Amino acid sequence: MSPPLLLLQDITLTLGGSPLLDGAGFGVSAGERICLVGRNGSGKSTLLRIAAGELLPDDGTRFLQPGTSVRYLPQEPDLSGFATTLDYVRAGMGPGDPEHRAALLLGELGMTGAEDPATLSGGEARRCALARALAPEPDLLLLDEPTNHLDMPTIEWLERELLSLSSAMVIISHDRRLLETLSRTVVWLDRGITRRLDQGFARFEAWREEVLEQEVRDAHKLDRQIAREEDWMRYGVTARRKRNVRRVGELAAMRQARREAVRTPTGLKIEASEGDLSGKLVAVAEQASKAYGPHVVVDRLDLRVLRGDRLGIVGANGAGKSTLLRLLTGQDRPDSGDIRVGSALSTVTLDQQRRALDPARTLADTLTGGGGDTVLVGGEKRHVIGYMKDFLFRPEQARTPVGVLSGGERGRLMLACAMARPSNLLVLDEPTNDLDLETLDLLQEMLDAYSGTVLLVSHDRDFLDRVATSVLTAEGGGRWVEYAGGYSDMLAQRGGGAPAGRARRSSADAPAAQKRPEKGPARKLSYKDRHALDRLPGEIAALEEEIGRQRTILSDGGLYARDPAAFTAATGKLERAEAELTAAEERWLELEMLRETLESP
């Protein structure tokens, strides 16, 4: 095996009184591709900063092969002090590096090089930092969450670019698909130490479970040995006369080893507080269009979102995903066409910018709203410390300002705030940013068990495959197309990669999956069906009003004690109206789909 370009050995670092890294380390040889994985807060970014030479450990050694060129991509790149993005990228190049690579990579990433770094969005700053890291084609690349804030086309471009390089790489990422594509070795950072798996990431999760199961077996053996030693201490012949100092010391050492051997459970419990059922139809768009000046964001969209759907929305940055969410949730109106939002919706939104978080407030105040020490979760009061533990926060973090939390911790805090509120519609805008793999697994399980409807904007291809029942894709020029299944199913139906989203496609470029089958002679709806189709929207609106009236009556907490008959009557009317609404919506949906089938060319 060739000598390592970089070697970290016995790295120790203590923060806040407890060791973050305790004997961690790894080596990287020429051309090797390593993914560094671990839970949020385990020290991955810190270890990568030590590898990059930006942070000194308390103890341990860092050896870099002389003459090795290294480029480091931090999570939050600093572009201050540069007049243009091209200046920033060129400043990262060394003597002899091909200067044309700077402009070439910026162009590939959708930038001109003339942009003012002070005006860039998070995604644009990340693309500039990527160009700066990749342009010199260094011997060693250290990449911390390279896909954060990138859209789907850019992520797939990045995969291809990294595969084409001969550089050695160490990558931290929550994007399973990227790790499976690129990695050949996994370094797992857990409880301050590192373990190495010389296989790709696809094998990692099974291997991790094997390691943890072995720890449980070892702990069980240690328990039995401790029990034998304690029995000797109490009942042994020697113990009747005096304690054997050596055996007492050994027992104390075993107990300490047992405490250290027990893996701290994730403790993460993500359960959405579910509200009352919504109507059968959550959102219906009919020829809906929306534009901002000459920029068409949505062009004649036809879409139905039914109760229980988990709709993934994908497209390039700027394609209009956030606008589409506002339209489908009734926060914005189309310029033409119609979007009807369903009845009895209780919506909870998870914002990718995390604007709802005040950096000056403490973690506990953020969860409680600043009042008391309890959180209202699904209508029940819980102590804030117990609820914090569900999301992997330590009790001592209760008074920690939100501004000092890591990106992953802020992501968990947003989840904790969102999941406490009753809902039957979850709107998740990039929920996977900064979350570790274990949290992503638990979030997926929560969404699988959630009986409400989910609108999900994400650039995480694996997460979309696991969660989405259908994917709505930006095809360019404001045209959105829905595909059944997850992201991989969408690719199979389209017959290509991620939609570019920026360039408008001609009708000749339309995916084969969207070409309608030839039909026989056109037929029309019967008079009775057409009359019902015209009448049903009014009936549905009237039923929604009736449901609202009865719920208002039943919201009086003292009604049952004061007038049981009125309470019983209102309950009966509410149940009948909800049943009639469901039947009317299903009948309208059936007729509308029949009309589309019969009248489409």
TrEMBL record:
Superkingdom of the source species: Bacteria
Ranges annotated as biased composition (Basic and acidic residues): 515-526
Catalytic activity reported: ATP + H2O = ADP + phosphate + H(+)
InterPro entries: AAA+_ATPase, ABC_tran_C, ABC_transporter-like_ATP-bd, ABCF_ATPase, P-loop_NTPase, Val-tRNA_synth_C_sf
Gene3D superfamilies named in the record: P-loop containing nucleotide triphosphate hydrolases (3.40.50.300), Valyl-tRNA synthetase, C-terminal domain (1.10.287.380)
Residues in ABC transporter domain copies: 6-216, 283-503
Stretches assigned to coiled coil: 567-594
Pfam family name, one: ABC_tran
Residue ranges, annotated region (Disordered): 494-526
GO molecular function, one term: ATP hydrolysis activity
Alphabetic keyword roster: ATP-binding, Coiled coil, Nucleotide-binding
Family, per entry: Belongs to the ABC transporter superfamily. ABCF family. Uup subfamily.
Protein name: ABC-F family ATP-binding cassette domain-containing protein
Organism: Gluconacetobacter tumulisoli
